[in-house]
Task: inverse folding
């Protein structure tokens, strides 16, 4: 079984679940965390039961997990009274971090303590790490006050290239160099799934995205292969698939 | 230059400030209460540089060698419980805090402690796994939405307690027959239960290489709230055995921390069980009773600055 951790209102996630029906894909939604049946014995995964799409599921039945949400939001915890939703959402997030981190199956991406999607890096941290491994960057500025200026990039979509890293593979890169750089940055961030944006003109790194678009069938197939372990990882030196 | 960031009234922060003043160390205090008037300008590429300006000082961030931060929930501190996110002042406070956190994550200065390193405390069972990995004993734990599982867990462990999973502070309470009529509530949200460990509480503070132990005698399940429960608390200095001290140092370093307050309970049979690692400990509660010089040790650590970064990691 593949598990997609996402909101039941996230159409791209529910589409993936439908697309991966042959792999027995199921959605793990916020609502599942408010259903009886969860049993997580810390340090004893063989006794752990999850509730996936309403059904109690042993951990060893899960072959791979794709996470498509940064956290559970308190507004989603509708079965808990309003005053307790903030606390309940925090508890659910803390629980998901512990449970997901305890699993031995492939996960895209392993959550951090602050973000279910992976490291909770700000744009400046991505730029700093990218520059640190030799990727071309433009200095990024953050000034307070002057909040409004902080988000101005000034690039049209046509000036940008979006690439997606899945494991050791990179999709959409205009050159092998950019593909290799993207994979390298993903490795530094310890993530298997990462969207990156570069400037077309000179290959300057612009930003990173832990929840990249997976609507491209080639990319979603790569994600599925990664999660099911059906892709034989090539050496990084073989370059990108693009 | 040492930068201290937090609230003037915060007792651990005040204790460290007092040490630095007594030593005539070069430091500045950034009062969180005035964050809405402070300015920060960051420029990041392969370097991280910028300036920080408050009512009291203007600082080139390159000159900062060490930071001690204990930021509180600024929304509550600055504008009360009912935070209005459309309030421009609050927006500026949040933006400033976010920029400061961003800088503390990247600066080469010694940061006690980096926010990302403190985050393991956001998920207690996750942190517990890291504690176990570091070779320490931790209580048996069940997190469940299944009332039946709670009863089975109670049957196999006798007395059990429940506590929050997240970093939200909760009063650790024993689960008893009085809770049975509310047990079905666990279905609404995963709830954490642990075997009850009977014994004496210990708080061990690690500051760089220095280790300070305190022994706490109390009848309540959670000594932090003993007075509320009508129980008394007695705290004494405790000489931490060498092996345990080494384990505490290693655990602290493995979590990326320079300062930690580690909670243990030791049973009559000598089982040391680690409950959690507090990455921003309110050490003055213990220091005031034991007379241990924890704040001096933190001042030493800050004084050594970025040299310590290289030594410990």
Result:
């Amino acid at each position: 079984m593949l598990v997609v951790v996402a909101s039941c209102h996230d159409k791209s996630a529910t589409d993936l679940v439908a697309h991966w029906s042959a792999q027995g894909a199921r959605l793990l939604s916020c609502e599942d965390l408010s259903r009886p049946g969860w049993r997580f014995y810390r340090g004893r995964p063989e006794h752990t039961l999850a509730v996936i799409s309403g059904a109690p599921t042993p951990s060893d039945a899960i072959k791979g997990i794709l996470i498509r949400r940064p956290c559970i939001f308190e507004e989603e915890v509708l079965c808990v009274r309003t005053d307790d939703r903030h606390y309940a959402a925090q508890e659910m997030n803390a629980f998901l971090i512990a449970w997901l981190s305890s699993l031995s199956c492939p996960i895209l991406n392993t959550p951090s303590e602050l973000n279910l999607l992976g490291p909770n890096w700000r744009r400046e941290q991505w730029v700093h790490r990218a520059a640190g491994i030799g990727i071309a960057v433009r200095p990024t500025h953050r000034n307070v006050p002057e909040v409004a200026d902080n988000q101005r990039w000034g690039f049209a979509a046509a000036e940008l290239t979006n690439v997606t890293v899945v494991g050791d593979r990179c999709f959409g890169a205009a050159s092998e160099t950019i593909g290799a750089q993207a994979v390298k940055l993903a490795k530094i961030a310890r993530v298997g799934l990462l969207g990156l944006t570069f400037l077309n003109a000179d290959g300057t790194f612009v930003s990173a995205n832990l929840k990249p678009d997976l609507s491209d069938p080639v990319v979603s197939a790569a994600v599925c292969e990664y999660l099911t372990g059906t892709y034989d990882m090539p050496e990084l030196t073989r370059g990108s698939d693009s | 230059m040492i930068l201290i960031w937090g609230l003037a009234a915060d007792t651990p922060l005040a204790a460290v400030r007092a040490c630095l003043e007594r030593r005539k160390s070069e430091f500045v205090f950034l009062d969180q209460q005035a964050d809405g008037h402070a300015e920060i300008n960051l420029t990041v590429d392969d370097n991280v540089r910028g300036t920080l300006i408050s009512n009291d000082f203007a600082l080139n961030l390159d000159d900062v060698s060490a930071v001690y931060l204990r930021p509180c929930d600024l929304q509550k501190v600055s504008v009360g419980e009912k935070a209005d996110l459309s309030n421009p002042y609050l927006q500026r406070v949040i933006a400033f805090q976010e920029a400061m956190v961003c800088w503390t994550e990247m600066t080469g200065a010694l940061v006690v402690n980096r926010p990302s390193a403190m985050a393991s405390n956001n998920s207690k069972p996750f942190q517990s796994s890291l504690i176990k990995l570091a070779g320490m004993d931790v209580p048996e734990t069940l997190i469940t939405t299944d009332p039946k599982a709670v009863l089975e867990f109670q049957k196999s462990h006798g007395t059990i307690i429940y506590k929050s999973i997240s970093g939200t502070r909760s009063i650790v309470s024993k689960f008893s027959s009085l809770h049975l009529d509310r047990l079905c509530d666990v279905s609404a949200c995963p709830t954490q239960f642990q075997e009850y460990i009977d014994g004496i509480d210990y708080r061990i503070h690690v500051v760089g290489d220095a280790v300070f132990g305190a022994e706490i005698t109390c009848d309540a399940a959670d000594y932090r709230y003993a007075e509320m429960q009508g129980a008394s608390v007695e705290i004494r200095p405790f000489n931490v055995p060498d092996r345990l001290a080494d384990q505490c140092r290693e655990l602290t370093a493995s979590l990326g921390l320079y300062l930690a307050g580690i909670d243990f309970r030791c049973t009559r049979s000598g089982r040391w069980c680690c409950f959690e690692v507090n990455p921003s400990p309110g050490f003055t509660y213990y220091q005031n009773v034991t007379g241990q010089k924890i704040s001096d040790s933190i001042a030493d650590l800050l004084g050594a600055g970025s040299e310590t970064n290289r030594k410990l990691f």
